[in-house]
Amino acid sequence: MSRLFFAVIALALPLAASAAEVAGVKLEDRVRVGTADLVLNGAGVRTRFFVKVYVGGLYVAEKKSSAADLLSAPGPKRVSITMLRDVGAGTFIQSLNEGFRNNSTPAEVDKLKPQLDEFEAVITALGEAKKGQVIALDFVPGAGTTVSLNGEARGKPIPGDDFYRGLLRIWLGDRPADEDLKKAMLGAG
Fold it and tell me: Model pTM?
């Protein structure tokens, strides 16, 4: 009987230890967004001028290794951002806006200006992003994009599939915020 017990324990250990860890941050293998269960597609570290800023993780319904496939995939998604250092709201917004504009056409930016303004207001209301805090950018079709801080939704959902695709391009676009983070979110890191 004891052999069976130890065999069961031995089989369960790898399952319990399967959550990803990046730069000391543990990321869940699965999360729930809306009514959908999502899997971690990939995660990595965002660095800026050799400084580790945050751990970014991408959650989707089905793992894919192509940025184009992930950007066009229907259904709920999450970008999880775990801060590795304190960053002021202004700096955070500037970085996100830069990434958005670098990966969108001027016409797309103009069209999405109302959503960008709403998003900026929510991030501004969060104030300084402090080391250890988790910011989640969740998308649910028909409901929009929700910003959460440590699991608590902030602001109202921001409408538009195209807006969330624009956000995703910050990390997965042709000119991503961090090429190594892009590769990691695509599951290659």
Answer: 0.88
